[in-house]
Amino acid sequence: MAVSDLAHASKTGVSARGGHVDIARLSVLALVVALSLLPLLAGGFLLYSLSLCFANALAVLSVSMLVRYGGEVSIGHSFFVAFGAYAVAIVEHRLGLSIAASLPLATLLGAAAGFVFAFPSRRLSGIYLAVATMALALALPEILIGFEKFTGGFEGLYIAQDLIPGIPKALQRYYVALAVLGLVCLALAHFRRSAQGLALLMAQAQPRAAEAIGITRSWARVSIFTLSAAVAALAGALTGFASSTVSPNSFTFFSGVFLLVGSVVSLNGLSLPAALVGGAFITLVPTYLAQAGDWVPILYGVALVVVTLVANAGDLRRFLPRGRGR
Amino acid sequence: MSVAGFIRDILPLLWSGLISGCLYGVGALGLVMVFKSSRVVNFSHGNLACLGAFVVYGFSSGSLLSLSWGSAVALALGIAAAIAVMSYALIAPIVFKSDLASTIATLGVGLILQGAVQLVFGADIVNLDLPLPRFSFSLGAIRVSSYDLAVLVVTLAIVGGLFVIIERTKLGVAFRAVSTNPFACEVCGLNLRSVHLFSWLAGAVLGLVAALLIVPTTFLSSTTVPSFMLQAFTAAVVGGFSSLPGAAVGGVLVGIAMNLFSFYVSPEFMNTFLLGVILLTLNFFPNGLLERAIGGRV
Amino acid sequence: MTVPAGSNGLVAEGISLAFGGLQVLNDVSMTLRPGVITGLIGPNGAGKTSLFNCLTGLYHGQRGRSSFAGTPLNGLGPAQRAACGITRSFQNLAMCPDLSLLENVLVGLTLKRRSGWFSAFVPTPAQRAEQRDAERRAMAALNELGIGSAAHEKPSDLPPGTLRLAEIARAITSEPTAILLDEPAAGLNAVETRDLTRALKRLMRSDLVLLVVEHDMDLIMELCEHIYVLNFGSMIASGTPAEIRAHPDVIRVYLGDDADA
Asked: Which residues cross the membrane (chain B) (predicted)?
């Protein structure tokens, strides 16, 4: 049932773009169908990796939202991801509730944390925010370890409760992560056409003109960061659920940088395929290149530099034959 | 806590805060120079300094070569300078187009340098001392060591040297002009690229010097130096991010504040404390703590 | 529609503005009455844009007062003045490249739209109705300026004349009580300028304050009923087009300018 809903809704989700997206719409639909049927064929480890992939894709999406709608860079979104993951774990340990309750709660708390964080730099250029997110990423490990009473310190916490008892755990993780990711993509497609979405895009592209319409920069900055942090916390909640455990090992300084890598590699796209590319890049590369551990940062660094240069070197396209530039 | 105890504690705390603060300031100066001239926040600053420190270690300890400390430092300076030039060359095509894209590219460079350190030197934790005669003496309640004096001398020499370059040389005049109005400078025929290159080179040297001086107080690993740079970033924010004197003074303030926080509150939440300092500064003193005292745009 | 008593449009009194030691505006006063198209002219560097920015709240003069329909404006920024019903256009085209022309105009309705954050993500019947209504209003504004056919194009595919009209459409779609246009004819060819003049005359209403800042004398003379002339930061003349044409100071300033050029 969830599958057909998704498929139907994704049709209306992209239809505003006009007729030429029919093929794009169909291929997204095919992708959703394929992913929904995959558990019939695939085994445990692949399903587990893909569940993490979906959760990471959502985290990548939260960073891309910030870039697209806010023109801001964050290297500390791992903080909000961890926030969501630990919220799920702590709610289970203290209150005995499953993610049915903790998923919405984690999202709301993530939004609140994002608001508190973005508020101080609301009037400053995005570079200050980037520096502040670096501090956020570096502060995260010591907060997780320092508040041992809640977070379980180095050991972390387990997340054991099922969403729907009786269904195999691997399937639950897989379908919950896929469904949430799909729904967020649909919500973002709707957001692009909403009054708030248009206002944020305007504030980013033409801040002074937006101001003259009544859209203040500080409103835009704080709003998009709050939304993005909420999505990051939701992604964290899924990560916790999909991996059944939270510990400081999963949230080092580099996790935040890697999320940005995923976002850049997916060209900051907000569609389901783009998010999946970003999520897969940061999930599968370390898994399958585990023996080449030290090459991973180098590979990510090269990806970051190359994609950024290519994406921003629009002027170079003029010199190429049959370029799209005018 | 008694008043006498407080006085006994506070002077050594302030002194050691001043010493480490000098180094944060030197690190911050490198960041601010790059930012002032090219509007890029250089996130590879710490990784480059870390690589340089490891090169000194590798060339002087015998793990790669057994050179003297001095020649190892000279080599490391050369390598750091070469990498700084290369990283600037990488982002040069987009540096005028987008602050944020260039900033992201510096993160990529930082990741590459980080991976290079891990590849060559592994995840080892090593000691890297300065070749200094060991002595110390008391000055009232304060104990002054040869290390403290070395830090003070080097910091003063660097700040003085930088001041002379920026105030007295042609390059310095160009640097000041570029950081005030890049467009007008280009119109007037000043070469922006050479000014950018100068500031990136100076940034690399400052970062390496700060790293070499801070390492003896802890140890050297692939993560200590990059995270030490958070102190430098905080110092730069406290100083307003585009003020050279602000960065130096900001460094000292951050050094002292960290020492006090670690002694009186908790040594385990230093980065969280710095996060708080950054957020409070951005909220209440967006142009830096010293805006009124010395002007945020110096 | 009649103007309520006591409301005397947008008034600026004794505005002085200096950047550092440079005096840009010197004790400038002007009254923009509803129902009258007012023009502001002056040679380059006379302070037109500075005065304009003081009216829109981008700059704040060191001295002087401004008020709108009797409400003091001092200290209010651009967004707050927008909330008072004052909108403006920009000399450099200020279109968002990611949005279609219609969406660029829709943004002008932001302050009037009532759908909340929840319905920004989840479609609801009320939100859909509100969206349709907003799109209808934006489309009406585009049609009023005669560029409805370009509604779904991207700004990068359209000529500057259309974009200029679209900016005006964005300014009028929220039904503001004051519209301030900064050099609306800059970069337009003769045909586009004529279309613009017609469009502006058509949208004039008795309760609307409309200010046009231009250096194109012909456009101002044809369009405006009341004209202010600024030179070296001071107001040197004001009056009807005929009075301005005959004013000796204005002739000196403009002929002098022409002679140099």
From this structure: 12-35, 47-67, 73-96, 103-126, 146-166, 198-220, 232-257, 269-290
Question: Are B and C touching by the rule of 3+ CB pairs within 8 Å?
Answer: no
Distances from the Cα of A213 to the Cαs of A29, B125, C82, C148, C165, in angstroms? 38, 56, 6, 21, 16
Residues C80 and C148 in one domain: no
> Taking a C-beta distance cutoff of 8 angstroms, is the pair C159, C196 a contact?
no
Measured in whole angstroms, how far is the alpha carbon of residue A181 from the centre of its chain?
9
Q: Is C170 helix (H, G, I), strand (E, B) or coil?
A: helix
Q: Does C217 touch chain A (CB under 8 A)?
A: no
> Which 3 state secondary structure label does DSSP give A18?
coil
Q: Domain map of chain B by residue range?
A: 3-294
Q: Tell me, which fold does domain B3-294 have in CATH?
A: ABC transporter involved in vitamin B12 uptake, BtuC (1.10.3470)
Token pair recorded at residue C210: 């409309």
* Burial of residue B262, with CB atoms counted within 10 A of its CB: 0-12 exposed, 13-18 middle, 19 or more buried: middle
pLDDT tens by residue, chain A, 326 residues = 333 333 333 333 334 444 555 888 888 888 988 888 888 887 888 899 999 999 999 999 999 999 999 989 999 999 999 999 999 999 988 888 888 889 999 999 999 999 999 998 888 877 888 889 999 998 998 899 888 888 888 888 888 787 777 788 888 889 999 999 999 999 999 999 999 999 999 999 888 888 888 898 899 999 999 999 999 999 999 999 998 888 888 888 888 999 999 999 999 889 999 999 999 999 888 877 767 777 888 899 999 999 988 888 765 444 444 333 33
Average the pLDDT over C65-91 and give the result: 86
Closest CB from B99, B226, B282 relative to A124: B282
A128, A260, A312 member nearest B282 (Cβ)? A128
Burial grade of C165 (CB within 10 A; 0-12, 13-18, 19 or more): buried
How many domains, chain C? Answer: 2
Final residue belonging to a domain, choices C120, C150, C175:
C175
Residue C92 lies in a domain: no
What is the three-class DSSP state of A296? helix
User: Do residues A64 and A266 make contact, with C-beta atoms less than 8 angstroms apart?
Assistant: yes
CA-CA-CA-CA torsion sign (B250, B255, B259, B265): positive
- Model pTM? 0.87
Q: Does domain A44-313 have CATH number 1.10.3470?
A: yes
Q: Using an 8 Å Cβ cutoff, are A202 and C72 in contact? A: no
Indicate the average pLDDT of chain C.
Answer: 85
- Asked if the C-beta of B43 comes within 8 angstroms of chain A's C-beta atoms, the answer is yes
Quote the domain boundaries for residue C28.
Answer: 1-85+176-261
Place of tokens 């090992």: A249
Please tell me whether residues C187 and C244 are part of one structural domain.
Answer: yes
Tell me whether residues A198 and C87 touch, CB distance under 8 A: no
For chain A, where do the domains classified as CATH 1.10.3470 start and end?
Answer: 44-313
Contact B57, B166 (CB under 8 A): no
φ, ψ for residue C72, nearest 5 deg: -65, 140
DSSP secondary structure, B108-170, as one string: HHHHHHHHHHHHHHTT--B---------EEEETTEEEEHHHHHHHHHHHHHHHHHHHHHHHSH
Q: Is C229 left (phi over 0), alpha (psi -120 to 50) or beta?
A: beta
C84, C93, C118, C121: best to mutate for the A interface, most A CBs within 10 A: C121
SS3 state of residue A161: coil
